[in-house]
Amino acid sequence: MELLLVEKAKYLNNYKIQLTFNTGEVKAVDLYNTLNKPIFEPLKKISFFKNFKMDPFTIEWENGADFSPDYLYRLATEQENKTTTNKVQNAI
Length: 92
Description:
The protein is an alpha+beta fold. Helices cover 29% and strands 25% of the residues. The chain has 2 helices and 5 strands. It has a 3-stranded antiparallel beta sheet. Strands 4-5 form a two-stranded antiparallel ribbon. Strand 4 and strand 5 form a beta hairpin. It is globular, with a radius of gyration of 14 Å. The relative contact order is 0.18. The model has no long low-confidence stretch (mean pLDDT 92).
């Protein structure tokens, strides 16, 4: 299995970031519910949150906070699946 990396990231809105992985997949992730540890406290301010930068593997913030590419991928996929399930249930 290839090492998963975040190659590009773009701030969308609120606590959402669009990520491009080295697999070629593009996923949006909402990090709002993940900011509950002390290192993530500054990220609760949108002005701080949207000023992330790329490191060789993932996104990171000025205070050293980051998320592993595997975690971001898994979270984005779970959120996509939940959204799809909700749309299907609402259509029934």
